[in-house]
Automatic annotation (TrEMBL):
Keywords tagged on the record: ATP-binding, Kinase, Nucleotide-binding, Serine/threonine-protein kinase, Transferase
Boundaries of every Protein kinase domain copy: 50-342
Cross-link (Glycyl lysine isopeptide (Lys-Gly) (interchain with G-Cter in SUMO2)): 176
Source organism (scientific name): Heterosigma akashiwo (Chromophytic alga)
Active site: 174 (proton acceptor)
Record protein name field: Protein kinase domain-containing protein
Coiled-coil regions, chain positions: none
């Protein structure tokens, strides 16, 4: 009986491996220059040493750990997806969709780079660029609100990353503080010594940390688990529009979810701009614009004077144009980037008086250099 059970388990694993290989090959054909893919043994983890006691986060069927490349010593984040929790074909396909979409979008400095994937008998492992300066959620737990200058820098970088996502014919669908990470910005350099801010802090005793201020940090969008490809001709039959995704289930986090998704209607790229509007309101006011979330159908966002008088008049103007219930009237990402509120974004605060933005320090023409 035990021998029969082992045989059935081995058979299921073989079938699972065949299914995954078929989906993987389809993904590899779908994108040019697909990420490297290999099969490894669980004990070796390929070229990486995993720190099991350093976990960034854990979801229903995945966890993210700190790891180090054995040859170069470079630190990365490895997202381990547990195969045993992927029961249905839809769940398996969603993993490969996340990998494909992340790879399509990761050629930009404001998006975490997907370096490679490798598979072990128990996990699918995604090797992702490490953003080691925390995330926006933890920053807001410490600060609650940001200054207007800081909020401008966050929103500007968020929109630049989102512009790349949309240009790659993708919609993210899960923009929220926990999915917005920060890393040291190589463009922020010292006037006198030429060091980047991260290098200067590492070698200067008593240097003030910048983890609680985004003024000198590089924003990174992560987690493409909810993302979808759009436009897609397959949507036309259901919605009559290749740019509208037919509603199948609530996707994302409800507080940042666009009204069209809450109404279970077809949705597209404007859904991401609603999330940006909610984030911008929260960064400046410290609270959500609609409580409860579905109050957005009953009223427009409120801008009480005791919260908003300290900001320029352009701030509520931009928020209002992003938090428009009708997606056809909502700002596009290109229009949002042209809004006058975002003028004069790059100013470092007095915490780092000898540092300034040096675009020449950027590696390449604005894109994230790949491994």
């Amino acid at each position: 009986r035990a021998k029969g059970a082992r045989f059935r388990t081995a058979t299921r694993r073989a079938e699972w491996a065949v299914d995954l290989e078929k989906e993987r090959r389809g993904t590899a054909r779908a994108i040019e220059g697909a990420v490297p893919y290999v099969m490894q043994d669980d004990a070796h983890m390929g070229n990486y040493t995993l720190k099991d006691n350093f976990e960034f986060g854990e979801g229903s069927f995945a966890a993210v750990y700190l790891a180090t490349h054995k040859d170069t010593g470079v630190k990365v984040a490895i997202k381990q997806i547990k195969k045993r929790y992927l029961f249905s074909e839809n769940e398996k396909a969603s993993v490969w969709r996340e990998i494909e979409n992340h790879q399509r979008a990761s050629n930009h400095r404001n998006i975490t780079t997907l370096f490679e994937i490798f598979e072990t008998p128990d996990h699918i492992n995604m090797v992702i660029e490490l953003a080691d300066c925390g995330d926006l959620e933890k920053m807001l737990q410490t600060r609650r609100t940001l200054t207007e200058v800081e909020a401008k820098r966050v929103v500007k970088q968020l929109l630049e990353g989102l512009k790349n996502v949309h240009e790659q014919d993708l919609v993210h669908l899960d923009l929220k503080p926990a999915n917005i990470l920060f890393a040291h910005d190589p463009e922020v350099r010292c006037d006198t010594c030429g060091s980047s801010l991260g290098e200067w802090q590492a070698k200067t005793p008593g240097a003030p940390p910048n983890h609680n201020s985004p003024s000198a940090l590089l924003l990174k969008i992560c987690d493409f688990g909810m993302s979808r490809k759009v436009p897609d001709v397959r949507y036309f039959k259901a919605t009559g529009d290749v740019n509208k995704i037919p509603f199948t289930a609530l996707t994302g986090t409800e507080q940042y979810m666009a009204p069209e998704i809450l109404l279970k209607e077809p949705y597209g790229k404007p859904a991401d701009l609603w999330s940006v509007g909610v984030l911008m309101y929260k960064l400046l006011a410290g609270i959500m614009p609609f409580i409860p979330t579905r109050a957005c159908f009953a009223r427009k966002p409120a801008f009480p004077g005791y919260m908003w008088d300290k900001f320029s008049l352009l701030a509520p103007d931009m928020v209002g144009k992003l938090l428009t219930v009708n997606p056809d009237e909502r700002l596009t990402v290109a229009q949002a980037l042209q809004h006058p509120w975002l003028d004069s974004v790059y100013h470092l605060q007095v915490t780092f008086p000898h540092f300034k933005i040096c675009p020449a320090a950027r590696r390449g023409s604005g894109d994230q250099t790949k491994k």
